[in-house]
Design brief:
The protein is α/β, with parallel strands linked by helices. Among the domains are: 110 residues, Immunoglobulin-like, CATH 2.60.40.1180; 55 residues, no CATH class. 30% of the residues lie in helices and 16% in strands. The longest helix has 20 residues. The protein is globular, with a radius of gyration of 24 Å. It binds 1-deoxynojirimycin (NOJ). 1-deoxynojirimycin (NOJ) binds next to loops.
Length: 584
Amino acid sequence: MSNARRQTDMRSALFLLALCLFSPPTEAQNEEWWPTATLYQVYPRSLKDTNGDGVGDIKGITESIPHLVEAGIDCVWLSPIYKSPMKDFGYDISDFMSIDPIFGTWEDFLELARVVKEAGLRLVMDIVPNHTSDEHEWFIKSINREDPYTDYYIWKDSLGIDENGTQIPPNNWISAFAGSSWEWNEQRQQFYLHQFTVAQPDLDYRNPLVIEEMKNVLRFWLENGMDGFRVDAPGHIVEHIDFLDEPPTNDPNCPPMQFCQLQHIYTMNQPETLDILWEFRQVVEEYELTSGEKKVIMSEPTNNIVDTMTFYGTPERPLMDFPFNVNFVFDINNQTNASTLKGAIDKWIDNMPAHATANWVMGNHDQPRNRARQGEEFAMALSMVNLLLPGISITYYGEEINMDNTFVSWEQTQDPQGCNAGPEYYQRFSRDPERTPFQWNDQPFAGFTTGNTTWLPVNENYLTLNLEAQRAAERSPFKIFQKLTAARKTDSVKSGAFDHQVLSEHIFAFVREEPPSLSYLVLVNTGYSEAQANARASFAQLPDAGIVYTNTPSSNFQIGDVVGLDAIVLPARGGLVISYLPLV
Ligand code: NOJ
């Protein structure tokens, strides 16, 4: 055992002891805190760099906590900060129980956890069960067939040697990052499976020892104060036991050897996956029982809504508290009208099990930014929807100031998914444009770093699009965001009734109300020209007039204006939130 590991184990033991001796669970700790939470995803490389190396770090996250408090966030979700060779920027983990030096030290992590708690926020981290780094000691020992690691990964024999003298892989499976999912290992004389980069070998979850290892990882971080986890790539955890070829999609738009070439019927969403998620869930529940603290366990979705919903589990066997709902990301585009917007919302609500809580995601580190997909005004209108619908709302760093995608040239490309696609296709596949440095102010490098370089370029728009400017402005995306997170803390949004309606071809609206409290009417215009709506015709409980609570920049209203609810004017692609007292 390394000294660092021994030290962290001792710290964990002391932490647990202190927890038992000095802090009996309070009522608040015992409550489920996440069903109305506003989550914020931090991509650690890109929030703030304090040591001048151009890469964000833990101290930078700690320094950012006042901003997150001011933004009205409840819970910080960290993308991976574990030790990693960074082939997939932290999603390739070489030690699940230590911090990568590029992000800082164990002490930096403890300080972050302390500051987060002191600010009244929660801290959740990514857990990546499907694979490790090829530099993880389990993999190195597995190559050497050192027990018990020999069968920790998916190893398969070659099917022979082709006419070029190359080993033939066991089947046609294609990695999510393009190319065969199989890599020949000369030393072990076998292929190993990797569903992502070559440097991310897949663990074998048919081996009970692997399940136990991952459960220990969860225990370790719970004991070190984590409020929960986001489970990475759950759909990929188990593969079909027969290792058959996957059928082609015959998609004419899919480039050769890309993931979209195959229907992933043997590599994704196998029924045994749910048993593994149940194992993870039990660790969290055991910890909740002994500590009296409520934790959250959420996951990425998988590639279809039906399988994604199975991640919720059942009341008898709950699995994830919620899988992320990315329908906003995939289903809403520039063709969306009021009824298809409502459809994207209903898709989740109607498919969700009765015991479940909804959640709304507008962007993440794997998809182009909300603003790049929807345009400047509509991105803000959709954030009104995202933050005021019932359930959990998840904000990707930078969305609170409406950051845009950044152009990253082929030469500057870092993301393996972009690099593997080659210069012709990299722009379609690279995730770099949504991962560029947070824009703090108009200083060099947008105030992101104290150094003179950044790992990805800063968006050129930072001189005008930055947090400092938006805090100073009377109206700005950040000010809208603050109003929305403040509304989330009211009873009307936390627990009030929800009714949503299509008012016209382009106007979608919903109400959140808890009579006699102040309630909210949210209206969005999906169309490209100004439109007028009669909200009273669809919502009988609305009074004659309400007050403008917040609105997108092109709206002519001022906050506080009194508006007749039978003739509300919305700008093209705009959104408006009106507060009102419901008729009872
Ligand atoms: C999903 C993560 O969100 C993505 O960023 C990562 O590359 C893959 N899983 C592999 O871990």
